[in-house]
């Protein structure tokens, strides 16, 4: 029987290589030039191209919050946005929060309150907590819980995460109403 390969049918690519674009992302204060296909998510650009693996991939479908980063100070699920859409924006990942050896107050609070177990959700939880406070929407403990509800923790460290967020929130002028 004649093989398909002998006809040359498999010698040529069926389609050409995907087109890529040169894009520049501002991540943690530095400009990074990347050559990306237009459908690469911000999450994959951070992890696979910039090797910033602090941002975690959980569901890749906007349902777990593990991939949360800050864009212009607002938290977003980086799996749900395309890298190409974030050109010109100020992207901050967990790697960009500490100033040298000095941790961000939210990182310190998570450590002090034991707000993690395996730690997989932690970068997203911390970015989300920082975004929550800067958004200024929470007025009560229930609202903090509600606004953090997009960040799933399989280990169930929610009580300690809440304590950490409340501490920083109060230090920044938040008034806890139960
Ligand atoms: S990986 Fe983005 S929300 Fe789960
Ligand atoms: S600490 Fe393990 S998933 Fe949250």
How would you describe this protein?
The chain has 178 residues and is α+β, with helices and mostly antiparallel strands. 29% of the residues lie in helices and 14% in strands. The chain folds into 2 domains: 21-95, Ubiquitin-like (UB roll) (Roll), CATH 3.10.20; 105-172, DNA polymerase, domain 1, CATH 1.10.150.120. Mean pLDDT is 91; it is low at 1-6. The chain has a 5-stranded mixed β-sheet with strand order 2-1-5-3-4, with helices on both faces. It starts with 20 loop residues before the first strand and ends in a 7-residue tail after the last helix. One FE2/S2 (inorganic) cluster (FES) binds at residues 116-122, 153-155, 157.
Q: Supply the helix-strand structural class.
A: alpha+beta
Q: How would you describe the shape?
A: elongated
Write down the CATH topology of the largest domain.
Ubiquitin-like (UB roll)
Quickly count the domains. 2
Major sheet: order of its strands?
Answer: 2-1-5-3-4
- Would you tell me the overall average pLDDT? 91
pLDDT under 50 segments (min length 5)?
Answer: 1-6
* Rg from alpha-carbon coordinates: 20 Å
- Strand portion, in percent? 5-15%
Protein name: 2Fe-2S iron-sulfur cluster binding domain-containing protein
InterPro entries: 2Fe-2S-bd, 2Fe-2S-bd_dom_sf, 2Fe-2S_ferredoxin-like_sf, 2Fe-2S_ferredoxin-type, 2Fe2S_fd_BS, Aldehyde_Oxdr_Iron-Sulfur, Beta-grasp_dom_sf
Pfam families: Fer2, Fer2_2
GO molecular function: 2 iron, 2 sulfur cluster binding; metal ion binding; oxidoreductase activity, acting on the aldehyde or oxo group of donors
